[in-house]
Amino acid sequence: MKGWALQLEDTATVDVRVRVDGTTRLEAAADGPRPDVAAAWGRGPNHGFDLAVPRIIDGRRDVCVEAWNRLDRRWVEVGCQSVDVAHSPVTDANITFQDNRLQARGWAFDPDQPDRPLRIRVMADGRRVGGPVANRPRRDVATKFGINPEHGFRFTITVPPGADRICVWAIDRPGNRNTRMICV
Fold first, then answer.
1. Strands 133-134 vs 127-130: parallel, antiparallel or unpaired
2. Which of 53, 85, 117 finishes a domain?
């Protein structure tokens, strides 16, 4: 979360906090450089914040930023928003399986590391039979999610004859929250 907070009565730094679903998850000083705020309000250049709240559970979450009002000695809401949190890889794919050949095309990325290509894992009866990388250009994905475009994939993998269960996974690098794309 990025923004700024100041107290109009002086130039002192203001504390801010982030609440997720009503629980305080992070407190910090709004002391980052914001020359635009200084120019507009004349209260000094260091009133910005750029915060990352760790370990938010996936799902729809209500996130609020509050600033400490020193005069009234209370927290004041700066803004709230409902957001969809996803640490697991996000994917969209068209996957077909016929005559021991798995064909797939689509895109996948890890919201925790959106600038890095994501590995796809193909498993047959619990054994790895392929590991392509989602690194082909997809401008539509870049536009929709505000990330670099290298998250597309298109591949064909021959699966061993007689395999009973074929699964395709998008692999989560840091957190082991892999996303199952399909099992047939």
1. unpaired
2. 85
H helical segments located in 32-88: 35-41
Chain segment 126-165, per-residue pLDDT in tens? 999 999 999 999 999 999 888 999 999 999 999 999 888 9
Distance in angstroms between the alpha carbons of the first and the last residue of the chain: 40
Question: Quick one: pLDDT at residue 129?
Answer: 94
Of the residues 85, 107, 139, the one at which a domain ends: 85
d(CA 86, CA 65): 20
Domain carrying residue 156? 90-183
Q: Based on C-alpha coordinates, what's the Rg of the chain?
A: 23
Residue 160, burial from CB neighbour count under 10 angstroms (0-12, 13-18, 19+): exposed
